[in-house]
Structure formats: C-alpha cells, structure tokens
Amino acid sequence: MKAINTEIRVQIKGYIEGFIEGLIDEYKGREITKPNNPSEYLSRTSSKGELKPFQAALIPPELIRINQFERGLSTRLGNSLEECARLIALKHHKTVHRGYDIRAEVSLAAFAEAERQKENYESAAKMGQAKPSFEEMITAVINARCSDDLETKYVRADLYIQTNDGRELLFEIKSPKPNKGQCLEVIQRLLRFHLLRGVNRPQINAYYAMPYNPYGSTKADYRWSPALNYLPFEEAVVIGYDFWEIIGGKTAYEELLEIYLEVGREKSKYMLDSLALSF
Question: Of 23, 87, 158, 159, which has the most beta carbons under 10 Å away?
Fold first, then answer.
C-alpha cells in the first residue's frame, strides 16, 4: 500500500510547483551588474553586506543569480517539507496541524525549571559529564509544578499530530545541522510541550525532527557534533527515514522524494531559462 495516495500526491506536486515558481519569480528579476572596473565596483554600497568584489570579478552574473536562488531555496525548504509532512499525515492520523499552539495555565516555577534543565544539560555536555535522559528532564519539569503561581502560557509546535489511538506527537522541524544555541533552545521547547500537557512519555512524544540526514541513510551515520553533544539525540531526535515513517509509513520518504525529483525534472529547463537567460 502506498504511503501517499493519488489525491495527496497531486496536492503535494502542485504545492512544490507553486513553491518553485514563486521562488523563481522572486530571483529571476534581480539585476546583477558585472563590474566595469575596480573603482566602479568598490564605490558600490550594500545595506545587506552582499558585496563580494573578487567573486563578482570572476563569476558571470547568471551564475551568481543561480547561486542566490539556491541559497534562498535552501533557507525556505523547511517550510515546504512541513507542508508536505502535513499533507501526508492527514491520511494516516486522526488530527494534523501546522503551527499548532499549545496553550495552558501552568506553574511559573515549572516553566522556569525547563530553563534550568536546559542549562544543566549544557553544563554537563561542556564538562563531559553524564547527561540526564530526556525523560528525567521531563519528570523534573513536571514535578516542579506549584499550585499558587499559575499563569497562561503557550508554545507553538511546527507540526502537531494526534494519532488514531489518541497519542499526541509534537515536532520541531529544523535543520539537520543546528548550532549549539539552536539545540539548547529546542530542548527547552520540547520540555515545555510536555509541561503544558502535564504528562511524560509515552502519552505525548515531542521530537526534534530533521527531514533528511546529510550523512547517510541511518541515524548511526549522523556526525554533526553540536547536535550529538547538545541534544538528547537518541531519545528526542527523529531524522530522515525515521521521521517520515512516523508521518506516513515506511515508504513515505522515498515516495515524497520521487515527487520532488519529478518536479525537478519537469521544471529544470524553466529554472535555467528564467535564472540564467532571463526568459
């Protein structure tokens, strides 16, 4: 049985096509002027700090525009993958939402405990000491609750799923190469997801989701040291195949990538004509 049925496949393909066309429209009209001489280029100013005199001297403007497009695509790719995950999950789970706010009245002491747990994890990682498990951190946050310091708080999840058997899954869908600060921020957010629901695993599972693995096909292949050191990696991270299997089943990842490949094949000439030749 296919993870992505015909109806959802059509929706995903249309979404990706619109995503690519919108991005091309943004970049194809950008004027990139080749330097006439050194003094002319060095007299230019850029409010965004984008002047690169030696690259501009060597590289044709068309290649610079394509490079800018690729960087813009990489920056926004996460949004396209979030929407694809939502569309796939709709046919496999009871409830699915993007940008889902979890709102509840919670203890301020427990809310602050999530910050302390994050700091303790960072300290242990720096010192090379044993780090607490993710479940231990969740337990510490929940146990810090008081009844006389309640305040309404909310935390937003990139993707929320309620499974057919009633379990809740919350995902922070981020880059597979986060820096240290991003790792620690996600730990805090995942802990607060559990606090606002008031339960530990397995009733709720909060994850840092990496939509693909830049090192290989398995979790064991992963080598990015900030994530390995500053995240409860084995417990709280789902990456590549593991993430997409949760979303839609064992074949979801490859089926989705096949749609991206199809759009890439069909749009390749359009992309080159628009970005390199300005057609």
Answer: 159
Q: With the CA atoms of 115, 116, 117 and 120 taken in that order, what torsion angle do they form, in degrees rounded to the nearest 10? A: 130
* Cβ-Cβ contacts under 8 Å for 231 (sequence gap 6 or more): 178, 183, 186, 187, 208, 237
pLDDT band at 158 (very low <50, low <70, confident <90, very high): very high
d(CA 262, CA 6): 15
| pLDDT > 80? residue 278 | no
Instruction: Write down the CATH number for the domain with range 93-248.
Output: 3.40.1560
With contact defined as beta carbons under 8 Å apart, do 193 and 154 qualify? no
Domain boundaries, the chain: 1-77+250-279, 93-248
Collapse the DSSP code of 134 into the 3-class scheme (helix H, G, I; strand E, B; otherwise coil) and give the result: helix
Listed in sequence order, the residues at least 6 apart from 5 whose beta carbon sits closer than 8 Å to its beta carbon are 91
Query: What would the pLDDT profile of 215-226 be if each residue is shown by its tens digit?
Result: 999 999 999 999
* Average pLDDT over the chain, rounded to an integer: 94
How far is residue 17's CA from residue 97's CA, in Å, rounded to a whole number?
22
Number of H helices, E strands in the chain: 11, 5
62's tokens: 């068309």
pLDDT at 30 > cutoff 60:
yes
| Predicted pLDDT at 279 | 56
